[in-house]
Amino acid sequence: MRRSSPVLFVAVLSLTAGRLLGQQISDLEPERPVALEDARPVSYRAFSGSADWTYNARKDSRDDYGPGFSLLYGALRRLEVGASVRYVTSPSSNANRGISSGDIRLHVLYGLATEGPSLPALAVRLGVEFPTGLDSKGTDLHAGLLATHSFDIIRLHVNGLWTHLGDAGARERKDRWEAIAGIDWTVGKHGRTDTLLVADADIRTNPLVGGKGILSVEGGVRQRIGSQTLLFFGAGSSLFGEKDRVKVRLRAGVSHIF
Q1: DSSP 228-251
Q2: Which residues, at least 6 apart from 170, have a Cβ–Cβ distance to it below 8 Å?
């Protein structure tokens, strides 16, 4: 019996490590690499830092690009706190599209319910965006309800989001709504979970009063390159809704879990 103890310990350790690594690659954060987010906060006392570069090729040829950064922390069990910031060229034009350049966004994500055999995981997301960037106006409020349900290697996600602008222009909507539906699935041989594919469809209200709703589709991949480091790549397009819509959006970045 004593001889089998080390073998049993190694087996349990391997299974536990596999679950933890699988969870890391499956923790979906907005823009890492698509808009979709899952209903699972980061693990208790874990840090996750990310950086990316995004390029938007627009229909009117006024392309924009820039970096984005985020930091997440598992403050309590089932409670995630985080901060993010994104910079883009043409900040004045992007401000009219509802895209900030340099605004600091803080959020909390709380897991309302863990996933069961027939019930999805549920989480609520609350955030505040401060006008620290270029051409920024007021302080914006964000709220969302997230749901995730698993089917073997496939997970389905639904996000419902609301934004309230603290200072809206005469032609801007003060309250904006967004709905995202998507899917992710692991790809790998022999039970490995080093690669995660993700895709979503995103429909949201136009930032301008009287503007048509905006529909976007995206796809991407998260690839583990180390025990705690992930690379992610994404691409998407806005199908209709804006005269200067994004024909192609490309994003590449890296995440590291501490």
Answers
A1: SEEEEEEEEEEEES-TT-EEEEEE
A2: none
The tokens describing 145, both together, are: 């309800």
| Beta strand spans in 174-226 (E) | 175-187, 195-204, 214-224
**CA dist list (Å): 97 to 7, 51, 106, 139:** 58, 23, 21, 16
Nearest to 18 by CA among 205, 218, 249, 193: 193
pLDDT tens digits along 41-67: 999 999 999 999 999 998 877 888 999
Task: Tell me whether strands 140-151 and 121-130 are parallel, antiparallel or unpaired.
Answer: antiparallel
CA distance 218 to 20: 27
Q: Which tens digit of pLDDT belongs to each residue from 195-251?
A: 999 999 999 998 888 888 999 999 999 999 988 999 999 999 999 877 778 899 999
